[in-house]
Every structure is written in C-alpha cells, then in structure tokens.
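Consider the tokenized backbone below.
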C-alpha cells in the first residue's frame, strides 16, 4: 500500500477516534452538570455528594445507641428525643 493511501485512511480514522473520546468526555461532563443543577433545584443533593449514613456506636463522633427508660416521675423517654442537646447519663442500680 502506498504511503499516501495509508495516510488518507489512517488520519480520518484517528481523528474519528479522538472525536468520539472527546465527545464522550464532554457528554459525561454535561450530564453531571445537569444532574447537579437538578439536585440544587429540587433541594436534593447529587448522589456523588451524599455523605455516608452515620455510624451508631459508643465512639466519639458517632450517634449514640437508642436508649429508652423512665425519668424520676415515671414518664417514658428516649435518648433520641434529646438529639442535638447536651445529655448526661448516669446509670446506677440497686442490687
């Protein structure tokens, strides 16, 4: 095959491949921008910005496990009723 014919075939094929790759990247970017705008308009966070669910457990920075009980007047309460407030728990018993 002559070099001129090879260049006439090779150059358009390579340009086509580059165009498809660049177009795909642009399309993915555009879809991400649209999703981000939709999320702002509806008040929902885009799926890539949603934080993981909180961890429940006895460690600093985690949500305390659900505790239910009665206060001194016999009224039922749940620890989750006081979320966001400072709570001091004093566990004691008589046995």
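A designed sequence for it:
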């Amino acid at each position: 095959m002559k070099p001129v014919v090879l260049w006439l075939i090779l150059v358009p094929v390579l340009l086509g491949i580059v165009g498809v790759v660049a177009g795909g990247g642009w399309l993915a970017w555009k879809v991400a921008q649209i999703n981000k705008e939709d999320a702002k308009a509806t008040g929902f966070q885009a799926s890539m910005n949603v934080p993981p669910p909180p961890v429940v457990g006895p460690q600093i920075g985690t949500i305390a496990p659900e505790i239910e009980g009665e206060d001194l007047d016999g009224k039922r309460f749940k620890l989750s009723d006081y979320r966001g407030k400072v709570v001091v728990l004093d566990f004691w018993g008589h046995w």
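The chain is about 40% helix and 5% strand.
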